[in-house]
């Protein structure tokens, strides 16, 4: 800045009225030098500006690499019973009855009977029995884990460490994100834990949230754009209020939900008035209502933009044919604005999927093994799972947290790609 | 409605008599629909009222209890619910400190990114670079929290030594929060810069100014109220952010009863843990919190403090936005 200041002052010192021819060559040289200096300063600062974007890009890259680093890597495992001694071929290739036999031969008869009583082995599928064999017979114990980069670049050193520190341990390259990770329910042991209940909980919550927020939001947008007289005080207050609500921290919505939905309306949100008895107010319905209030301003503002973009001539043509105001809105304004409204809705969905703080406050459960079955179920959600796993100090939980983050990000990317496709596909300028 | 009256006045008497039954038929449906839509719009008002009412009512219970008074809440320097100390200061200071660190990162990076995108970048470069900021803005905050715990904290510990930097510290949380706020500051500032009329830039070029001089002396000062708005919204966002601080900043309020020297150390080198207002709410409401306990009520007292802080920031920011709109639109 100060350099530029000086340069500027000196250029100003040259009287502007002085004719060029009258300048001595020394003056001209000085002037050229100053101009060159100013231009150099400009290009240097340009690089500084550009590098700030590079910093943002670097942050994004490091973020992605940090997550990838934890989601894959070598794992040193010791087994109580080596799986190779149980069967001549890998356990994964055995049939259900063979696996059941292995289980029967290797565990206590009472335990086997108890498992059979919980769910008869004849009805269990292969994945289930296989999981039992691992859990009860093989009993793998994770000794140490490594990140992706260590595994790629220092594989020899890792092998040496394992041979020295954990004799008998098996070193395998493990992807923490796998089909069983997605399909199995939660578990207190990180190596068996899966995200199934959380993923279903998130999806159920989002679906219900959108069912509440979209009709309300689009209705509010129609009112503000089509009916409201912008000079009316109440309508002005509504509009300002929507912008202000968009800036309220999400945790405040959580506190609101806790007091109003979880506690105040407990008889409704727990399902007691509908005959559900085994629940309290900390249900999917409470979370969805809270989340709906949170995304409502977003839905309204986006829908307003979409409705604003519909040209007035469309409405006039409809009125000219004798349609009423509501007929015009329903048959002409809304269909034309639909892609814009959908895009806004999808963006609101991706906001709701990633929100964690309000869910913590309204009391999403941290440990749930059953799939959500109704709006009145207790539930957990993807971000809650990530939060809990990240908050634990054990390295293994960091790995599964990274895997869960990848699943969440994939869902988010899919949603956003849909929004972009919709926007491009239906973009029309009237 | 106005069209109907218009048609009627131009009709002959007979036709009017014949059709008036149809024309004048009150359209109840239309009115009902309009009222339903009005209710949809009014839900947002109810939400605000509910926030104010709920936070206010439960806070009154909190301040009405024997264990705590409003004066103690504002002035006491310790937050230890177990022994009945409810002074908001330690929580608020951590909030301000982490937000300050975040803005130290977000203002320079966000602002220069905005200047580059608005003044220097060709439409093509813009098309490539803008999505980077949009992706950063779309990352859920819990993922940033993971990033702070698994990357930023180990990095700081490696640079400054594990004996200086605690496992949970405000610096890591603040720095990552800064990265989170960058896209917000950048996109709002860019909007403000883009709203500056082209003629101002052309006048500056016409006087022989370089691009840099034009950007810094003409465009940025003209957009300063929009940029202020962006910065203030950024602060408000950082103050209300929960997940990053809940995961990375630690689970115990700052200790303000230490010696002045130790306190100076906290402020200059924030490498120790300090629970923020949002972090505290997230931690104590995580379990099955029983209603009507003092902990439950304290959530609302912290909530209303947070609400007033962010609301004030947002209102100031809107004031700035409106000011720059008036100038150029």
Largest interface: A-B, 89 and 89 residues
Instruction: Tell me the β content of chain B.
Output: under 5%
What do we call the CATH topology of the largest domain in chain A? MetI-like fold
Largest sheet entry of chain A: 3 strands, antiparallel
In CATH terms, what is the architecture of the largest domain in chain A?
A: Orthogonal Bundle
How many beta strands in the DSSP annotation of chain A? Answer: 3
What's the number of structural domains of chain B?
Answer: 2
Strand order of the largest sheet of chain B: 1-2
Output the strand order for the largest sheet of chain A: 2-1-3
Topology-level CATH name of the largest domain in chain B: MetI-like fold
- Ranges of chain A where pLDDT stays below 50 over 5 or more residues in a row are 1-14
On the 0 to 100 scale, the average pLDDT of chain B is 85
H/E topology pattern of chain B:
HHHHEEHHHHHHHHHHH
Poorly predicted segments of chain B: 1-11
Helix fraction of chain B? over 70%
Please give the share of residues in helix of chain A: 55-70%
CATH architecture of the largest domain in chain B: Orthogonal Bundle
